[in-house]
């Protein structure tokens, strides 16, 4: 059996901080990856707070307007059991 790896708490938290894109400016590609999974909302804060920590704009729309009915994001309640903000799908009707 392989030996357990020990990681210091500060090291792990630093890794998570960076992977959640809280360490600096978020590139558009990073934001696309985050929105693919969705940003979780909770009773204490909605996904808008999570976005504000990472960026000021979603495309050409400010974060405060991004989750309105006419915005580029939508809040939905997926199978994961909590509301998540995701990019509004581009639907084309034929």
Helices and strands in order:
Elements: H1 9-19, H2 28-37, E1 39-40, H3 47-52, E2 57-58, E3 61-62, H4 63-66, E4 73-76, E5 84-87
Antiparallel strand pairs: 1-5, 2-3, 4-5
Structure, explained:
This protein is an alpha+beta fold and 94 residues long. It is built from 4 helices and 5 strands; from the N terminus they run ααβαββαββ. It has a domain at 26-87. A hairpin with a 2-residue loop joins β2 and β3 (61-62). The protein starts with 8 loop residues before the first helix and ends in a 7-residue tail after the last strand.
The percent of residues in helical segments reads: 25-40%
Shape: globular
Main beta sheet strand tally, sense and closure: 3 strands, antiparallel
Number of helices: 4
Strand order of the largest sheet: 1-5-4
**Overall number of strands:** 5
- Uncertain parts: none
Whole-number mean pLDDT? 78
Our measurement of the CA-to-CA distance between the termini, rounded to an integer number of angstroms, reads 57 Å
Structural category is alpha+beta
């Amino acid at each position: 059996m392989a030996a357990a790896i020990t990681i210091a708490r500060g090291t792990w938290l630093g890794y998570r901080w960076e992977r959640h894109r809280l360490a600096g400016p978020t590139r558009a590609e990073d934001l696309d990856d985050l929105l693919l999974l969705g940003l979780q909302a909770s009773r204490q804060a909605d996904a808008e707070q999570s976005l504000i920590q990472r960026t000021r704009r979603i495309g050409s729309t400010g974060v405060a307007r991004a989750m309105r009915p006419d915005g580029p994001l939508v809040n939905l309640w997926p199978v994961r059991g909590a509301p998540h903000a995701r990019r509004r799908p581009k639907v084309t009707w034929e």
